[in-house]
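Structural prep section.
Before we set up the soaks we want a predicted structure of the protein with S-adenosylmethionine in place, mainly to decide which crystallisation condition to try first. Input record follows.
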Amino acid sequence: MLPWRFLHPRMWAFNARNVSHFLIDTVRGAPPRPLRARDYVARHATQGDAASVLATLDRYATEERWLMSVGPEKGPLMSEMIGGLPDGARVLELGAYCGYSAIMICQRLAPPGTLVSVELSPANAEAARDNIAVAGFAERVELRIGSSSDEIAKLEGPFDLVFLDHWKDLYKTDLQLLEKRGLLRPGSVVVADNTGDLFSPEAYLSYVRTCGRYDSESREAHIEYSQLPDAVEISVYRGPDAT
Ligand SMILES: C[S@@+](CC[C@H](N)C(=O)[O-])C[C@H]1O[C@@H](n2cnc3c(N)ncnc32)[C@H](O)[C@@H]1O
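Run finished without errors. Recording the tokens verbatim:
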């Protein structure tokens, strides 16, 4: 990702708020943000009510501290794809953060469908695990702590839908790893968040749009909890030989 794109004047208000919050939290020695969001959910959300957990995370992100969850605008673009999956579908998510998208996926994924979510940061995984439990989905989610590439190397496939929402520079290589390991089947849906220009998605978009193995389309949206432009790329895998 090129930092200079985030220095564009349209980013100034967004950056000013985040930088001031970052400085305040650093001076105060505050715990990691996802753990504070987790504590906020524990205080304010209703146990067993997924919608309440999502609404509480949305409130935290707008009233307290910005969260890089997929959010209430792009989240439904991702989760509407879940509705078209077969019974017992298997979903893979790369990047759990506070568990927001995992909860949204489980809301649409009818049992016995399951979600595997991979998260690099132990603190973020702890927040995700606790929030998913409050939402009532602890039994439906296998949360794996580790790097995407390490976990992809160990996973058994195939997955019916993959949600890419970890570090943007890894989207292309991790997707190629998923293909190489046979973790996609013809018809698998790959949803990639943050494919708007601000995130420098050129390498990933060029790959899914031109390699011949995907039917790919972009949905325009905004960066979560802001009016800044963003997009979600939805790509349907044709299969390994469709080039
Ligand atoms: C944008 S957040 C994910 C938001 C989440 N999908 C949601 O909508 O609620 C990105 C997350 O990816 C994690 N991450 C970054 N690189 C990773 C990697 N290589 N493997 C697994 N997780 C990674 C970060 O620690 C962070 O929690």
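Observations: The first strand starts at residue 90 and ends at 94.
Flagged for discussion at group meeting.
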